[in-house]
Flagellar biosynthesis protein FlhF
Amino acid sequence: MRLKTYRVTTMPEAMALIKRDLGDDALILNTKKVKTGGLFGLFRKDCLEVTAAAETAEQSALKAVAPAKAQATVAEVPEAKEQENDALMEELQSLKRLMMHEGPEDRLPEPLRPLRSLLEKQGVEQTVQTELLSKLLKASENEAPVQEAFHAELIRFIEQHQQAIKNESPSIACFIGPTGVGKTTTIAKVAAEQLLEHKRTVGLITADTYRIAAVAQLKTYGEILDVPVEVVESREQLAGALDALKDCDVILIDTAGRNYQQAEYIQDLQRLLPETQHIYTTLVLSLTAKYEDMVQIIGNFEALSIDELLLTKKDETASAGVILNLLHRYRIPLRRIATGQNVPDDLVAATPGRIADYIAGELRHA
């Protein structure tokens, strides 16, 4: 079963997209009004969120061969085909009930109800909830502990949606993102990681001349790590700094944390980065931010090439469901998660097992 969610202005717009992506036989599972965009909660726009489902290619193939089989087994095949169609419709209806939470509570098996509550508490989108819970419906029928099955299904989901890193160790990396997400501290952690674990020489560049203490902060880290630090304000100065640090194995670039809901700040970054040289770009976002704000920030950065996501402030929130939402929605690799302020310790790999533990660890070990 294929599931897809759209955010549109009108229902006819949704129908056109569903027909294009899923075909004429797709079934609409859920529609609801949501608000998107805006600034500080103001000027948000109403839109429709529509979720639809369609058969997989394998299911369609089974239907396609049914007419041929019918010629040989006239009496048996119609009944089998009817059972197949009934099973398909029941699967679709089960998915719809899970998505919309319709009907009596006992429609969802008792062992799965705490899991649905946990996913809702963690801020996991309805589409992702449905995909996970529908897989667990069969698991709830056997004797395996549901918590273990849930953890295993989370890992499977993450492995399926997590994109592979194209370049494990880029020689020049630029860190971008909104204010307050901890870019400068994160850069210090990455620099220490490269120095201590990978034995690479590192150079630092800061273009964050907007904050009074930003340059001093990175220079302090540079002194502690004994690495050179360059300060730039323009593309020309950046080219000069890259040339000055050309003997370093790795060069990490810090940028100003600004309100990237405003287009002019994206343009400032475009004017800073060279046009003829691709610099590996890491978008830094905080796990304490609202998922809707993350979506808007990522959308605004589409003008730039985002090679990787890095999520910070895991230590400041008990919720990690947004990670599943991001992996499901975007084809942007996630390699690291920052779990605190300590340099260099609080930077960990975003492995499927670790992310699953963030979401279901307490439930699993209860």
Summary: Residues 77-100 form the longest helix (24 residues). The chain is about 45% helix and 20% strand. Residues 111-161 form one domain.
